[in-house]
Amino acid sequence: MSEVIQRVTAGELAHKAAQDTTSYEAREVGQAIVDDVYKELQECRTIYNRIFDEDEYCLVLKYATDPLIKGVKRKKFYGWLYLPSPRPDQAVFLYNKRMDTITKRLWVLPNSILMAKLAETLVVPKEYELMQAWSTAFYKGTFWEFIRYQHNIDMLSESEYLSTHREELIKAGCKIPDATYSEPFDFSKVAIEKIVDTQTAVVN
User: Which of 47, 62, 194, 195 gets the most CB atoms within 10 Å of its CB?
Assistant: First the structure.
């Protein structure tokens, strides 16, 4: 008879964390997060090295709130061949496959509220100056131009790449999506059977 492995769910961990009254030193927490992110980036690199043939590509970290469990944020890691579209709660790194190393931290964007505050504030503490520059470029619509100038790179964004190589891609058999006649979302396809207490929600 096979042994059943009991795993702690995200909901159970969130409930336990909510009951924890221990005081933690911020620097130690920050260091633990950095160490964890570095480890995840290395695992992400291993996966996408088998997928991408290019010498350089982006490693992306995106924080996302859990739709069911209050206070829980999930880290999503993935590789991207182009400069990804900037988003709140996002960090992007340039990885060199031949050197097998992350060569540049391209940008780190905070949550949307802090991004807006940074973009409209004239003077910020020194540790926020870079984040302010990225946030300002985001709202000005000059983000990719600023990133390429700042890091002295010429990597295109996905939309720029598709536009530049449009004819080649069409000849190769790729279909360029036409958003002119996009269909409205059909909300009748969404069904909610039952809403439960999110503190006790079970996540597979």
Answer: 62
